Amino acid sequence: MSRRSSGSSYDRAASAPRSRIFQRLQMRAADYIGEPGKMRDLVNRAVTKSKTEEVDEMGAVVDDLRALTRLVRAYAKSEYREVKTESVILIVAAILYFVSPVDVIPDFLPGGFLDDAAVLGFVVRRLRGEVDNFLAWEQERAEIIDIDDAWEEESGR
């Protein structure tokens, strides 16, 4: 019996990206575009939740979640805009899904983050090119900041 319920949890998780819940969140996510405060608050909620022990069951998807939250934060601050609006909406919807405690598999149940991982994985796979472009921009920017810091240190001597 436990094997059967485990299988159904995986089946339910796999269906999460096609669920009505996620479809509704995509419509709701459109309201976040042009609202930097709402985007910032959402990112903060996701970052806080991503640090909880229960999220560990999501495995490597947590790294993807962190990348997506950084992308949304940079977008909200108008620092990074090399991403389609439709893509930002999809990312915001995935983050909304993650922060929502009640979804296809409620987070308080065992395996409750499997559906969150499925939605985040779906979005990252679908937007892999845009996520990779953001990560490259972020890396380039970090190198520029490092060079600027080194220049200031040398100039200060």
Q: How much of the sequence is in beta strands? A: under 5%
| Share of residues in helices | over 70%
Q: Provide the low-confidence segments as ranges.
A: 1-6
Global mean pLDDT: 83
Helices, by number, come to 7
| Overall spatial form | globular
C-alpha-based Rg, rounded: 18 Å
Total DSSP E strands: 0
Outline the biggest β-sheet. none
The helix/strand series, from N terminus to C terminus, equals HHHHHHH
Distance between the termini: 71 Å
Coarse structural class: mainly alpha
Could you explain the architecture of this structure?
With 157 residues, this protein is mainly α. It has seven helices and no strands. The longest helix is centred in the last third of the chain and has 29 residues. The protein starts with a helix and ends with a helix.
Write a concise keyword list for the protein shown above.
157 residues; 7 helices; 0% strand; disordered N terminus; mainly alpha
Give a topology summary.
Layout: H1 2-15, H2 20-29, H3 36-50, H4 61-76, H5 85-99, H6 114-126, H7 128-156
Helix pairs in contact: 1-6, 2-5, 3-4, 3-5, 4-5, 4-6, 5-6
Q: Summarize this, please?
A:
This protein has 157 residues and is mostly helical.
